[in-house]
C-alpha cells in the first residue's frame, strides 16, 4: 500500500506500545507510588538523585525484603506502613519494587544516552580538528612547485 493512500500506516518494525494495555492495573499502582513520591519529594526528582542507580537498587531490595518479612510477621505483606504516609494502606511494596526497577532502568538508559552523546561530540570535535589541520596544510605554500 502506498504511504499516501487513505488507511496507510507506516508502523512495521516499530515497537507495539499497545502491549502496555496488558499491564493497566500494575501501571496504575506504579503511578500511585510515583504520585506519592512527587508529594514527598518532587516530580521527576528521582532523575537527579546522586548515585541514583545504586540507591534505587537498594530501595528496590528493601521493599522486596520488607514484603517478604511482613508476610510472616503480620500476614499483610502488601502495604507500606511508613509513618506520616498520606497514602497509608494504599502503597504496595511490590509496586514500590516495580517503580524502583523502572527508575533504575530509566537512569541507566539516560546515562547510556549521555555517554553516547559525549562520544559523538568527541568524535565530531576530533573530525573538526583533523579537517582544520588538513585545511591549514593546504594553505602552506609548496616550495617544490
Question: Care to describe what's here?
Answer:
With 145 residues, the protein is mostly helical. It has a domain at 23-112. It is built from three helices and no strands. It has helices at residues 24-40, 52-73, 93-139. The longest helix is centred in the last third of the chain and has 47 residues, at 93-139. The chain is flat, with a radius of gyration of 26 Å. The N and C termini lie far apart (61 Å). The mean pLDDT is 84.
Q: Topology, please?
A:
Elements: H1 24-40, H2 52-73, H3 93-139
Instruction: Write the element-wise H/E pattern from the N-terminal end onward.
Output: HHH
Instruction: Please work out how many helical segments DSSP would assign.
Output: 3
Low-confidence stretches: none
- Biggest sheet record: none
Strand segment count = 0
Terminal residue distance: 61 Å
| Oligomeric form | single chain
Mean pLDDT: 84
What is the rounded Rg? 26 Å
Proportion of beta-strand residues? under 5%
Task: Name the shape in a single word.
Answer: flat
Helix residue percentage? 55-70%
User: Would you tell me the structural class of the helices and strands?
Assistant: mainly alpha
Supply database-style keywords:
flat; mainly alpha; 59% helix; 145 residues
Task: Give a short synopsis of this structure.
This protein has a domain at 23-112.
Amino acid at each position: 500500500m502506498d504511504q499516501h493512500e487513505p488507511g496507510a500506516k507506516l508502523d512495521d518494525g516499530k515497537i507495539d506500545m499497545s502491549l502496555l494495555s496488558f499491564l493497566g492495573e500494575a501501571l496504575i499502582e506504579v503511578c500511585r507510588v510515583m504520585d506519592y513520591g512527587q508529594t514527598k519529594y518532587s516530580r521527576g526528582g528521582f532523575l537527579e538523585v546522586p548515585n541514583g542507580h545504586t540507591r534505587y537498587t537498594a530501595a528496590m531490595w528493601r521493599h522486596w525484603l520488607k514484603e517478604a518479612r511482613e508476610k510472616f510477621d503480620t500476614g499483610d505483606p502488601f502495604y507500606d506502613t511508613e509513618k506520616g504516609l498520606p497514602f497509608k494502606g494504599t502503597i504496595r511494596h511490590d509496586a514500590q519494587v516495580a517503580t524502583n526497577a523502572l527508575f533504575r532502568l530509566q537512569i541507566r538508559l539516560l546515562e547510556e544516552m549521555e555517554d553516547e552523546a559525549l562520544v559523538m561530540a568527541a568524535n565530531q570535535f576530533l573530525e573538526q580538528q583533523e579537517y582544520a589541520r588538513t585545511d591549514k596544510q593546504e594553505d602552506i605554500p609548496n616550495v617544490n612547485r
